[in-house]
């Protein structure tokens, strides 16, 4: 009777869940407290059985949460409760909180690429710029950056020299340079024709042939005069001849 009275006092405690205490509605049998009132825990065995099932289910739930935790946050070390016989609600809450924290961090850092994405980017760079090893990635990046800077400066200068808009694509720059080259070639041809005094290509050929016929004998004559007069400068030929006269 004292044991029943002690149980009844626990069940009536303010800390006890309402589920485990019910006042008896029928006749009381064998559960009389010292003050003569009914105990009100005739249904307690069923409640305890339900709780026992729930405690067993807590172990299964803990194992499932641990698997989920290892998949989402594998860098977290196994908690020391894994080897305990009894699993507490606090243990499950700790695992759930760790998973929720990781999900929140992923949402905040959703722009951060994953390791497979970074690996794919590096591999693509190696293929594009013919880099055989990871050690060569940084030097090639620096080289590409330097070359890109040089090309950008060159294109900017060409845009300014050719008086093109800064948004003009490289093809327009190349076409403009080609047209400018054609104009220069035409001007050079005209200047050569004016210099030679003829507009006919055949006349130019004839003049060159005449030069080839005249220049060798003239050069031989000049060399003989220099030797005969014992001088070395062409400008001294006429003064020396006048002195002889």
TrEMBL record:
GO terms for cellular component: centrosome. One of its GO terms (biological process) is cilium assembly. The keyword Cytoplasm applies. It is found in: Cytoplasm, Cytoskeleton, Microtubule organizing center, Centrosome. Coiled coil: none annotated. Keywords: Coiled coil, Cytoplasm, Cytoskeleton, TPR repeat. InterPro entries: CEP70 (IPR037692). The keyword Coiled coil applies. GO terms for molecular function: gamma-tubulin binding. Directly interacts with tubulin-gamma; this interaction determines centrosomal localization. PANTHER family: CENTROSOMAL PROTEIN OF 70 KDA. Plays a role in the organization of both preexisting and nascent microtubules in interphase cells. During mitosis, required for the organization and orientation of the mitotic spindle. This is Centrosomal protein of 70 kDa. The lineage of its organism: Eukaryota, Metazoa, Chordata, Craniata, Vertebrata.
